[in-house]
């Protein structure tokens, strides 16, 4: 049985989840979220795998993820699991004097799959647990809730920045396969290139069959599933940065647009945004027109200046 209470606006999605299961463990499939994620484990334990690096989590720990970290959770066979999770959109930093990069450094200023778990000791020391428990939905409608929530999220970001630094000194139980870690690092650095299980296995000096087996065992996904989702994530970043869908398709490593279209729809539940292409084209045209306008104004000003100078010279000669 699963019970979830949630609230959301354009900046965040908050949910408090309680799950119970009499037999077996609770397994999650490998995925990534489109926002930053903070999860507080009130009553839960298990293994969190992020980008091939697995960490054992227990009650009181906090998990942080940036939008590009692929992960999955395997919870132990406890009778009840309870957690609070917040998905945070970077737009929450709009209008602040501090930059988004500085505010969200706990999420981005570290290698993928590293420093994702903040141990309960550090969480309690910085009172992050109290703050997360305070971020609750009011029983009655409160017109100031969004503002209060935003302030608490900003406070949470500051505390997490300190927590990541303190957590470095804590020894957390880890399960890491160096072959898979090296493979994931190589994949992320060469997404736009042609990558196959054979080429990666050769790069790592391991048997292809062994590599496929250990990769699936460690990440919960096949090599092709991981690679495809990574490329779609990268393509989304390129599109959001201003590239057309067609440009993003090939720059993210897809060999043809039909494959890109199929997997984009599968993993994002949307189709590549053709309107984005039109907007980019319109933007380029507008920029071109502005440049032409400025050039014409500049030439007009130069002609006027030359004309005035000529008139002055003629006036001086007549005198």
Name of the level-1 CATH class of the largest domain:
Mainly Beta
* Gyration radius, rounded: 26 Å
Pattern of helices and strands: EEEEEEEEEHHEHHHEHHHHHHH
N- to C-terminal distance: 101 Å
Short description:
The chain has helices at residues 100-103, 105-108, 120-125, 128-134, 145-167, 178-189, 197-204, 208-219, 223-240, 245-251, 257-268, 274-318; strands at residues 2-8, 12-20, 26-27, 36-43, 46-50, 53-57, 62-65, 71-75, 80-88, 117-118, 174-176. It is an alpha+beta fold. The model has no long low-confidence stretch (mean pLDDT 83).
Fold blueprint:
Layout: E1 2-8, E2 12-20, E3 26-27, E4 36-43, E5 46-50, E6 53-57, E7 62-65, E8 71-75, E9 80-88, H1 100-103, H2 105-108, E10 117-118, H3 120-125, H4 128-134, H5 145-167, E11 174-176, H6 178-189, H7 197-204, H8 208-219, H9 223-240, H10 245-251, H11 257-268, H12 274-318
Antiparallel strand pairs: 1-2, 2-9, 3-8, 4-7, 4-9, 5-6, 5-8, 6-11, 7-10
Helix pairs in contact: 9-10
């Amino acid at each position: 049985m699963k019970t979830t209470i949630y609230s959301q606006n354009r900046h965040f999605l908050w949910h408090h989840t309680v799950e119970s299961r009499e037999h077996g463990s609770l397994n999650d499939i490998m995925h990534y979220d489109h926002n930053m994620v903070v999860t507080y484990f009130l009553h839960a334990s298990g293994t969190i795998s992020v980008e091939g690096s697995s960490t054992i989590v227990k009650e009181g720990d906090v998990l942080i993820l940036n939008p590009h970290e692929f992960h999955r959770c395997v919870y132990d066979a406890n009778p009840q699991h309870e957690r609070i999770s917040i998905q945070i959109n970077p737009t929450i930093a709009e209008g602040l004097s501090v930059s988004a990069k500085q505010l969200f450094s706990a999420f981005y200023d570290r290698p993928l799959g590293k420093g994702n778990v903040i141990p309960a000791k550090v969480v309690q020391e910085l009172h992050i647990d109290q703050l997360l428990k305070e971020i609750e939905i009011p029983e009655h409608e409160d017109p100031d809730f969004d503002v209060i929530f935003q302030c608490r999220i900003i406070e949470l970001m500051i505390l997490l920045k300190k927590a990541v630094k303190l957590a470095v000194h804590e020894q957390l139980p880890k399960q890491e396969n160096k072959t898979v870690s090296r493979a994931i690092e190589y994949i992320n650095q060469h997404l736009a290139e042609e990558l196959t299980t054979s080429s990666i296995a050769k790069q790592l000096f391991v048997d292809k069959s062994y590599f496929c087996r250990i990769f699936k065992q460690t990440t919960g996904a096949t090599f092709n599933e991981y690679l495809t989702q990574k490329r779609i994530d990268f393509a989304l970043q390129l599109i959001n940065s201003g590239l057309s869908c067609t440009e993003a398709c090939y720059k993210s490593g897809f060999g043809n647009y039909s494959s890109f279209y199929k997997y984009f729809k599968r993993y994002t539940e949307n189709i590549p945004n053709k309107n984005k292409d039109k907007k980019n084209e319109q933007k380029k045209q507008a920029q071109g027109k502005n440049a032409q306008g400025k050039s014409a104004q500049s030439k007009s000003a130069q002609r006027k200046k030359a004309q005035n100078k000529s008139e002055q010279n003629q006036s001086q000669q007549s005198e």
